[in-house]
User: Fold this.
Amino acid sequence: MTRAPTRVQMADVAREAGVARVTVSRVINAPDSVAPKTRDAVLAAIARLGFVPNLNAGTLASRRSRIVGALVPTLSNAWFADTMDGLSVRLAAAGYQLLLGQTRYSETEEERLVDAFIGRRVDAIVLTGTQHLPAVHATLQRAGIPVIECWDLVDAPIDTVVGFSNADAGTAVARHLIGRGCRNLGFIGADEYRSALRLQGFREAASAAGVQAVHAHLVTPPSGIHDGARGLEALVHAHPAMDGVFCSNDTLALGALLAARNHGWRVPEQIAVAGFSDLPVAAASVPALTTIRIESRALGEYAGELLARRLRGASDDAARVHDMGFTLVVRDSA
Assistant:
């Protein structure tokens, strides 16, 4: 009869590395608390022996899962993926793993995922956006764990918010387009509330400058290049005098540039086009895209640093609202 292989235990790793068992535990659960030379020796022993920690046992003993849950609308958009990548890198350095969930822009799906993450005893939660169902607020307040909302700003967050003002970004684009002479403005955006905030700021700034109407074309998220192309076609056909368009993300804006090229509409002479997020392709498009730059990866990194400090037991940061800001990058398209 073939004997089942014996599972490697933490004590085996301790003997192999020449350290105490508690040191191995610290390397697994709080790597920053162990001297680099000792930590490297323990990690090398773990690799040689093929040790897999029993994380459930550690969770029961310490009441910590070493897992942070994060919710995003979708990972098909590069800007959300960059934020989650930055968050993951910072948390991994502090000994935490990231558990991701996609809400598909659904508040009810967000509620379901928050319940699932709390049920799995995550140590903290990161939410994309600041608009949630009342049940989500209640669940997170009862859980008593750190919560970071991102990709927006609000004066009274659930716990902490790291982001920027979507409405102010829309205002900045409107002022720029109007400043270069545009008077018949359009907006192409996803039908979701962060995009709606950009449209709100865009419309308010346009109205303040005497532009009476902003014509909007909304698409179901997640949006793609062809949505932007069809959006510009629809706007121009309905409003032939349109001379400036703000797209709520760069993907839509690239689609608008494609439609303009296909129809012979000169950019920016006939129609100025601006986007949002400053994807790497924005600078390489023809013409190069004017856009709002969001440091999406840095946003995730900063959120990760805040959480790592909180989870190490550092006193809460007095500031609950962290404004990362944005930059209007002016290029050839507007």
In short: The first helix runs from residue 10 to 17. The chain has 13 helices and twelve strands.
